[in-house]
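User: I'm writing a tutorial on reading structure tokens. Could you give me a worked example: one chain, its sequence, then its tokens, then a sentence or two explaining what the tokens reveal?
Assistant: Sure. Here is the example chain.
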Amino acid sequence: MANQSKQAKRLREQARRNQLIRYQSGEPCGNGHVAERYVKTNTCVECLRQWRLNNPTKIANYAKEWQSANRAHLREYHRKWRNDNKERWSALLQKSYKTRRAKKQAKQ
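And here are its predicted structure tokens:
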């Protein structure tokens, strides 16, 4: 078991040097998953996936809090994206307009 831990540490360091997001340690996590792990946190990908499925309210609350705290950053990010993707932005606006118009006509 000690050799596996050393091997897992070596694999994680190698993944970090290669600037990967995830790596395969080959060892089971505390819940028994033999799945990829995130390099930065060493968290099991499957455990995190299950946690997200079981805690959607916590995730939504965190997202709302983050967005409120980073309003200026988001505004700048979206402004830059719209300038860099003018054709896509125009197509999205047209699609949105058509969708809203169709819904409005369906109500009448």
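What the tokens reveal: The chain has a mean pLDDT of 93. The first helix runs from residue 2 to 17.
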